[in-house]
Amino acid sequence: MSVTLTERAARHVAGFIDKRGKGLGIRLGVKTSGCSGMAYKLEFVDETLEGDIVYDSHGVKVVVDQKSLIYLDGTVLDYVREGLNEGFRFDNPNAKNQCGCGESFNV
Amino acid sequence: MALLQIAEPGMSAAPHQHRLAVGIDLGTTNSLVATVKNGIAVCLPDEEGRALMPSVVHYRDDGGRDVGRAALGARVADPRNTIVSVKRFMGRGFADVAHIETMPYIFEETPGMLRLRTVQGSKSPVEISAEILRVLRRRAEASLGGELAGAVITVPAYFDDAQRQATKDAARLAGLHVLRLLNEPTAAAVAYGLDNAVEGVYAVYDLGGGTFDLSILKLTRGVFEVLATNGDASLGGDDFDHRLYCWVLDQTRIDPPSVEDTRRLQMKAREIKELLSVSEEAPFRLRLDSGLSLDLTVSRAAFAEMTRPLVQKTLAPIRRALRDAGLAARDIKGVVMVGGATRMPHIQRAVAAFFGQEPLTNLDPDKVVALGAAMQANALVGNRKPGDDDWLLLDVIPLSLGLETMGGLSEKLIPRNATLPVARAQEFTTYKDGQTAMAFHVVQGERELVADCRSLARFELRGIPPMAAGAARIRVTFQVDADGLLSVSAREASTGVEASILVNPSYGLADGEIADMLRAGFERAGDDLAARALREQQVEAGRLLEAVAQALAADGDLLDAGERAAIAAAMARLQGLVDGPGDTRSLADGITALNRATEEFAARRMDHSIRTALAGHKIAEL
Predict the structure, then answer these.
(1) b vs e for B495-510, b when ≥16 Cβ sit within 10 Å of the residue's Cβ?
(2) Using an 8 Å Cβ cutoff, are B105 and B75 in contact?
(3) Preceding omega of B256 cis (within 30 degrees of 0)
(4) Residue B46 to residues B51, B64, B132, Cα–Cα distance (Å)
(5) Interface pTM (ipTM) of the complex?
(6) What is the pLDDT of residues A25-83, one digit of tens each?
(7) Total-model pTM
(8) Which residues from chain B sit within 8 angstroms of residue A89, using beta carbons?
(9) Nearest-CA distance from B4 to chain A in Å?
(10) Most buried residue among B150, B262, B325, B532 by CB atoms closer than 10 A?
């Protein structure tokens, strides 16, 4: 089981942590909410919690809690630019469908 | 699909709840839009990666319009329909705008705000500004991938109510929800204060395209307090261009150029000014439509020399602001430079010499205001980090607020530069016996006489129980909330009767008027004190004359004819002084004389009233 970042995503995460001035890595997670049932969570990590699983991806620590991992296994986090907009995108093989905005999904 | 940004731990927004907010610096020369992404404020660039958008709108004769860089070229080809520096016209009338005669536009003098006649009909500055804001809004929505929840738009600290309202109207016309208008220097402080987190007192020197603002700010643990603001609403980088343009006309002795040539010369002047910030000299080469060719060389030193008066002009507001804040130049811990014009080396040198230290330039002076506005917008829509809740912005009252007292004097309740929100109360009393109502006249200004201040509102308090003059206690409270709205209430202590009114203190005050009123306040301080002393004596004389007249009516029979005549003579003399041209010394003498003339009368009245009070009472009863 694993969750990874693309190289480009890792570079941007490292850059954002650098600018923020602190942070161990990045936390990926899911929570139940949103129009399609579940929503992605993307946060800076200042401390790991019990039950967290930590991966290393291109030198960036990726933290996922066990419950979320069930829904996120195999996910690749990418950093993309679409027109004027840029940001992170979850490529999650578990998601059957997602809402139009891409912020929530279901399995 | 939406792309995600990284949130602070525990702060992931639920889907569709992260609200998109932007800060917009609607500048005279350039405008910018910024937002907070991944916890960091960034300016949003256009498709070609440029953050600055020229504040230029071109109305084409085919009914279309170009905004920003696309409109730049039309400045020469079609100057009448290409509006630059529209911010100078916001909320202004024809007479308010400097150098209006050299502008290529066709103005329409309409009551209130002027209008411009273009090929697409009459346009107000509000509509033209809305074109600029609309483009920035579209840029932000394309970049953020959603509809904006709101925007913070910055305005010069000296913008008055009409100009602020015009800015708000323009935003509404552009489909933006205005979260707040933020003063530009305050926005710059937000950007610097949060990014660098250095505590102390700072000066913000903001020389934009068309306005100069100087603010003294105190930063303490993330709390911003504006200690003082001052400035010049019609001084900016454009004036430096204009000075260079005039110099070129002077050097070449060419006839007043055509509209197209004027625009071409002004654009060249701006270009040379910018070039001189990075190189020692620049060639002023230009072919005019009139067939004339210009070939001049402008050195940095020559440019510094010809614009020295403009640089000097920025130092006077600094001195005034420092004096208002009760500080000396050495108390300033850092000087923040804002606005593209502060890139000019001789400005940086003059500021460094004034404060005895190098000014701060570590944030891009063109972007710093937009970045600060974006941070404020982000906080206002609720995307705040934990611990940001104590984030406070304190603003100040630009001119003192007071009440008219007897004799047309202004009694200041809230002094200029008091931080908002603020509340002050003071007790006033009645002037005449049996007075049952009191009129309040709320004024704003620095002068001692009400006639020289701006009238804001009038209201009345009725139902005061009849009492002797000076016995009633009426507590008047001035309260100004965080949005700058003043409410005044008056309450009589014994009965609890109340009256109140809500006013907007800056309503109808043009920034030029604020500046004039301030200047007059400083220059006329001596005259004002003398005038105040005179009015006080006149009021005192009036009060005394009335009291004596009343006493004579009540107890005149206590006096013989000679005594009565002596008092009447003293009264007539004093009345003559009150009605006369007014001399403080002789009025005071006249008051003393009447007091002396009535001493015996007063003593007799006292005896008489005691006798009356005691008459018919036995010792035991007392």
Answers:
(1) eebebebebebbbebb
(2) no
(3) no
(4) 6, 20, 13
(5) 0.82
(6) 999 988 766 455 677 888 899 888 888 899 999 999 999 988 888 888 888 999 988 77
(7) 0.58
(8) 1, 3-4
(9) 5
(10) B325
